[in-house]
Design goal:
Largest sheet: 2 strands, antiparallel
Order of helices and strands: EEHH
Number of strands: 2
CATH class: Alpha Beta
Strand order of the largest sheet: 1-2
Structural class: mainly alpha
CATH superfamily: HUPs
């Protein structure tokens, strides 16, 4: 979870992540973790800037052969 997504960012006068969206996101992550657990896997969840968190995870894990990510699509007006 990138804290920059929850600190006063606004789009068209509305918070980027309001309480309803945050609740949906938390419930979705919880459900995904439970689904993965039933399949013998897990989900790593961290809070922080992705550029810091991913670097720290790679260092912690030691051997990482690939890192995959997606970038949020931004609307151009």
């Amino acid at each position: 979870f990138d804290p920059r997504h929850y600190l006063g960012t606004h789009c068209h006068g509305f918070p980027k992540t309001g309480p309803h969206r945050l609740r949906f996101l938390l419930e979705s992550v919880k459900d995904l973790r439970e689904t993965l657990k039933k399949k013998g896997s897990t989900l790593v969840v961290r809070e922080g800037k992705p550029e810091d968190v991913v670097r720290d995870l790679i260092t912690q894990l030691g051997t990482v052969s690939a890192v995959v990510f997606h970038e949020e699509v931004r609307e151009i007006l």
